[in-house]
Amino acid sequence: MSKKDIAKAAAIIKHGGLVAFPTETVYGIGADALNSRAVARIFKAKRRPYFDPLIVHIGNIESLKNLVEDIPKSAEQLIKKFWPGPLTIVFKKKSIIPDIVTAGFNTVAIRMPNHPMALELIRLSKCPIAAPSANPFGRLSPTQASHVKRYLYKEVDLILDGGKCQRGLESTIIDVSQNKVRILREGALPREEIEEYLGKKISKPVKFIGTTPGSLLKHYAPQTKLILLRKNEEFVKPQKGFGYLIFGKIEPHLMGCKDIESLSLKSDLVEAAANLFACLHRLDQAGLDVIYVKPIPNVGLGVAIMDRLTKSANTFK
User: Fold this and answer.
1) Strands, E, within the chain: which ranges?
2) Within 10 Å of residue 176's Cβ, how many Cβ atoms?
3) Domain span at residue 83?
4) How far apart are CA 306 and CA 317, in angstroms?
5) Tally of structural domains, the chain
6) What global pTM score does this model have?
7) What is the pLDDT, as a whole number, of residue 210?
């Protein structure tokens, strides 16, 4: 899309409208984070409960200083290394940020996206942009503009098409608001990379934190029933109405099955992360009765992938 399109999107943001835009993680549905009425439109469009806080996107460090009470040394380290990028950091907020953005809590989740279109939109809008994923609440995250159009075409004022998202998983969320580093959500930046850079272990993810975006136990779900198999369990025999999501090469007894998606034929976790939601979207639109999924190796990005699959599953078989 052209600079003219981005300028049009920025004007919409300035006037309290909603714009869907790409980042390196997933597409977001954005509004002026300092405009309570505009932010309320996000919750209405997504049918998102007001107790679930939003992530605020910024384009420079000066903006951060205007939004948070302080920037701890640990946060400065993380920002220097990983911003712009798929890392969201939770700070104590200033009162300038409306309570609707943070669900009434005294902390705010902020990140600087690593996508030229997103950064230009923020720059031209001249405001921080509150932006959860551009999908109905609890449904599959969008990694292409077509996914946004499928769900929210009538709910947004403009969709900026930036092609396929590079990372394909939501950002990792780190909390520094209590003078220690805690990981609240596994995401596109593996925990191991953060630990290696900091030179220390950080607290493991908690299973449920109601104050963190994407932390609900049921989330990222397709409309089609999804069953996550247990470790080392084999797929059931293919039949009409069955779909399969695999990691690696297609197993012999699944050859010829038309409703099958491989996250990565070469078992590459980076590729699998980038393909996860796109594969699920395709299977979800195939008119299936059930989608069967095998567990992904629980290391590196596999941890974040398994978090999404576990939350999207209707049940374990």
Assistant:
1) 19-21, 28-32, 55-57, 87-92, 107-111, 129-130, 158-159, 172-175, 182-185, 225-228, 242-246, 260-262, 290-293, 315-316
2) 23
3) 3-198
4) 15
5) 2
6) 0.90
7) 55
